[in-house]
């Protein structure tokens, strides 16, 4: 997972990958040992369950739409052009309650096992199995 120079074209993803995770589309744009960046499209009424990154910081930059987050005990709304930082060890959940699709750039640093986790849960629908895998990949649901 060393960095290499060059461009990753829109919608192409690293190695042509795109993942369906709970009906959200994640396209990996860059992955190294120190950072992982993906383009995410979250349909209306979708969410990311409450979880924590014990060893990663996570960031979201909104390209289109609005998201609501529960960040620790705080409710946060972000919209186009906004960015939110979710420091390691702060539990959070992400919700699209806007009635419209949201497109955002997500990143985590360092990468740890998040890239491998997304590969494994692509097209998975069993939330209990997803939660078990999340715990195994240092991303426990809380």
What do these coordinates show?
The protein has 142 residues and is mainly beta. The protein has one domain (14-136): Jelly Rolls (Sandwich), CATH 2.60.120. 13% of the residues lie in helices and 42% in strands. It contains 2 helices and 10 strands; from the N terminus they run ββββββββββαα. A 6-stranded antiparallel β-sheet has the order 1-2-3-10-5-8, with helices on one face. The radius of gyration is 14 Å and the shape is globular. The N and C termini lie far apart (29 Å).
CATH homology superfamily name = Jelly Rolls
Question: In sequence order, what are the helices and strands, one letter per element?
Answer: EEEEEEEEEEHH
Number of strands: 10
Helix content: 10-25%
The separation of the N and C termini measures: 29 Å
The class by helix and strand makeup works out as mainly beta
Poorly predicted spans: none
CATH architecture: Sandwich
CATH C-level category: Mainly Beta
Strand content range: 35-45%
Strand order of the largest sheet: 1-2-3-10-5-8
Count of helix runs: 2
Overall mean pLDDT stands at 95
């Amino acid at each position: 997972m060393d960095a290499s120079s060059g461009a990753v074209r829109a919608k192409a993803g690293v190695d042509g990958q795109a993942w369906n995770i709970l009906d959200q589309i994640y396209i990996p744009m860059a992955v190294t040992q120190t950072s992982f960046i993906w383009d995410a499209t979250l349909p209306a009424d979708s969410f990311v369950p409450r979880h924590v990154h014990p060893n990663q910081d996570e960031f979201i930059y909104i390209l289109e739409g609005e998201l609501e987050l529960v960040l620790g005990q705080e409710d946060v709304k972000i919209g186009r052009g906004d960015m939110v930082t979710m420091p390691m060890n702060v539990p959070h959940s992400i919700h699209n309650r806007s009635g419209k699709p949201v497109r955002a750039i997500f990143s985590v640093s360092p990468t740890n096992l998040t890239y491998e986790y997304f590969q494994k849960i692509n097209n998975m629908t069993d939330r209990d199995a997803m939660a078990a895998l999340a715990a195994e990949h240092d991303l426990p649901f809380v």
